[in-house]
Amino acid sequence: MRTINIKSPEEAVAIFRKIGVDSYGIVAMAEKASNFNILLEKQPCKIANIIKQEMLSLGGDAAVARGSVACSVPATDVLIMGTLKQIFSLVAKMEKQPFGLDIIARHIAETLKSISRSEFVFRTSRRNIVLGGKTKIMGILNVTPDSFSDGGIFYSQEKAVEHGLRMAEEGADIIDIGGESTRPGSASVPVEVELKRVIPVIKGLVKKIKTPVSIDTKKAKVAREAVDAGAEIINDISALNGDKDMAKTVKEKRAALVLMHMKGTPINMQKGDLSYNDLMGEIIVYLKKSMEKARKAGVSKDSIAVDPGIGFGKTPEDNYRIIKNLSELKVLNMPIMVGTSRKSFIGKITGEEPRERLEGTAATVAAAIMNGCNIIRVHDVAAMKKVAAVTDAIVYAR
Questions:
Q1: Which of 200, 284, 325, 340 could make an S-S bridge to 364, C-beta 3.0–4.6 Å?
Q2: Is 321 a catalytic residue?
Q3: DSSP 187-237
């Protein structure tokens, strides 16, 4: 006797076939083998009570606040708990009911579709990057004198281009070039300084490699000139909140866009209030607002990825919680990028300096991939390429 870990209807079907279940039984039972928990926040008691009663009638349940039945509280969160079949049955019932239940039903159905999605097309100005089945590696190329891990090492144009070529040879799928340090406590640099650092490197690289280049910047002018020089992806740590012209720039240049969550700015993000009432919930809301801003500006949905911002306005404990609960970001229905490479929350555990955190980084990379990450942003491309390959073999094992 043993327990079976079933994470999707597809995995359930494989087990049913091995058992020898007939085709009708497979169809009937596939949606019963996976359990889901969906949280609806701040719902009126009337809505909460209907959902709870409907779930109970279907054999599932819904957790609500103690006073919701008597409506002695103004609103309550609702945790829906059930199999995929039970939740789909709930959706079918709610679609026919008043009080806005039909809208909630549609959102639940969209959520179920989003969290089960495993493949994406990340569209840049020059190509379609297929995500799913194999984690993509974004190699970090800092052209700065003061980055926390490798500041100054690749500061010259010649050394930077050489390192970019080396990462491409090691298997990087994207080269991310940054001309402004975002380490905790770092101040922003003038636009012209950032341009002087990154544009020659981008031009030097795109002449020699076919690997897509990303520009790590929160400034629209830098992003614009970087794309003109050959970059295809804009990696904006401010998630369009740092420059009012960034969304327009992304749209006009038809670039791909990475939106990252950050609390504060690099100069103050680790000095202010690092507390969260709901860590993952607040990250999701923040990123959703930035996604809506991008979409409103005309940026294609297929050109957006999200990043929870490990180390950007979070405690070490927060960073580990984000990795553990990373799959919650799937509700956004976007590719997920994670950057943990050599960061201080790893050193908090291992006691090592940035360049000594290879094994700790490997552990976070493996965990992130297992929890839904599509792109990993790393310094040590060759080593993390191997970590990702083995982790992918585990995640996609059939």
A1: 340
A2: no
A3: PP--HHHHHHHHHHHHHHHHTT--S-EEEE-S-HHHHHHHHHHT--EEEET
pTM, two decimal places: 0.92
Q: CA 45: distance to chain centroid? A: 33
Provide DSSP, 127-166: -EEEESSS-EEEEEEE-SS--TTTTTTT-SHHHHHHHHHH
Token pair 């980055």 is at which residue?
147
Domains and CATH numbers, the chain: 34-115 (3.30.1370), 120-395 (3.20.20.20)
Active-site annotation holds for 343: yes
From 85, 219, 343, 385, the catalytic residue = 343
Cβ atoms of 83 and 33 closer than 8 Å: yes
What does R_g of the chain's alpha carbons equal in angstroms? 23
C-alpha angle with apex 101: 95 to 107, nearest 5 degrees?
80
What does the pLDDT read at residue 391?
Answer: 98
Digit-coded pLDDT (tens) for 336-349 = 999 999 999 999 99
